[in-house]
Amino acid sequence: MKNRNILNSIKYIAIALIPFLMMSCGDEDQSAPITTRAYYACDDDIVIEIEINQSSIYAGIFKGKELLMVRNLQRDSESKVALYSTHDLTIKFVGDGLEVTAPKRKISGCYVSESEMERRGPRDTYYYVSNNGAFITTHNLSKDRIRLTLEVGQNVMLDTILPQVRAASGAKYEQGDVMFWAKQNTAMLIYQGLLYGHCVVMFEDEMAVEPCSDTALHAGVVSFLKSELSDEIDFISEDDRMYSAEHADINQDGKDEIFVALVSPYFCGTGGCTWYILNPDFTLLGKYSVSDFPIYISNTQSNGYRDLYVKSDGKYHTLKFNDGYPSNPSVEPVFDLFSHPEYTTGGTVRVLEWAYLRGCSF
């Protein structure tokens, strides 16, 4: 979401803080995850539910209460507008509305609807991403049945209805060679003997955090950027003067370094965006290019600094500190992040996870 248009759409997203009880057989109720979503009401009683990720969206299309289809759509990095597509669905954000192209369905007149959010009340649909990048959608048909969809890349691998079965905890659904087990904010899926593990629900209450509320951090980053970009800042439009920042201690000195991502089209290309690491006093530690977000901080170290896993050109690369981190991640060793035990056991720390959504001006 490297276009300011998507930031304009975000102001219409209602923050959903509605607890929903997932019933498990013979055990205590499990509180469902807190999520963020937006509803768009369209002509012919069609409703589209949108969940926004860094470079993709989830779209659930309903007619009344019937779920017609759900898709994970990737952002078109070549487009100058917020355009997302998959093999049979395209969605473009236009102001407070959507333009939808679906070959098998005519969908028109879609505008954001807070009343639809209120009318629907407790959440029925959940979106998960697994440790190997697969997308899983569950839709509650009743208190003991769900419809589950599994997407791998652009392919819908599974679309089935599962009954709930007895479980010691959480909510477990199983039939044939499919088993889905959800507990609080995580889940696992086994399908045809393959494990889709460490599934985490997308969009918890982190989205409710005001991105520039840390005034000291904001002031320090803005001062650095204006100095760093002084030779070109007059040529950068206001829409392109956007950054996202988070902090983490990467050299174990008890003080946090600051990660700063520049997330507008001026600083981003097809390979990724420009970002910085600043010392705790807001001086430059390093500048990096062609990178995507989030960035993962490893438990392993090199020369006193923790290794970083950075995505560039669609692959993760390992950055090791040697009098500084390498400035171009794309030429560093490729790392299979999602199958590595450090990731699957939760050993890494993510920063700049919401870089494309949390924009501060400088």
Provide an overview of this structure.
The structure is a single chain. The protein is mainly β and 362 residues long. It has helices at residues 4-10, 114-120, 215-228, 341-344; strands at 14-16, 21-22, 30-31, 35-41, 46-52, 56-63, 66-75, 83-86, 89-94, 97-101, 110-112, 125-129, 135-142, 145-152, 155-165, 171-175, 178-183, 186-191, 194-201, 242-248, 257-262, 268-269, 272-278, 284-302, 305-312, 315-319, 349-351, 360-361. It folds into 2 domains: 4-205, no CATH class; 209-361, no CATH class. It has 4 helices and 28 strands. Strands 20, 21, 22, 23, 24, 25, 26, 27 and 28 form a 9-stranded antiparallel sheet that branches. The longest helix is centred in the middle third of the chain and has 14 residues, at 215-228.
- CA radius of gyration: 21 Å
Q: Are there runs of 5+ residues with pLDDT below 50, and where? A: 1-35, 203-210
What percent of residues are in strands?
over 45%
Helix content: under 10%
State the helix count.
Answer: 4
Return the structural class: mainly beta
Provide tags for this entry.
4 helices; single chain; 9-stranded antiparallel sheet; mainly beta; 362 residues; disordered N terminus; globular; 8-stranded antiparallel beta barrel
Question: What's this, in brief?
Answer:
The chain has 362 residues and is mainly β. The protein has helices spanning 4-10, 114-120, 215-228, 341-344; strands at 14-16, 21-22, 30-31, 35-41, 46-52, 56-63, 66-75, 83-86, 89-94, 97-101, 110-112, 125-129, 135-142, 145-152, 155-165, 171-175, 178-183, 186-191, 194-201, 242-248, 257-262, 268-269, 272-278, 284-302, 305-312, 315-319, 349-351, 360-361. The chain contains four helices and 28 strands.
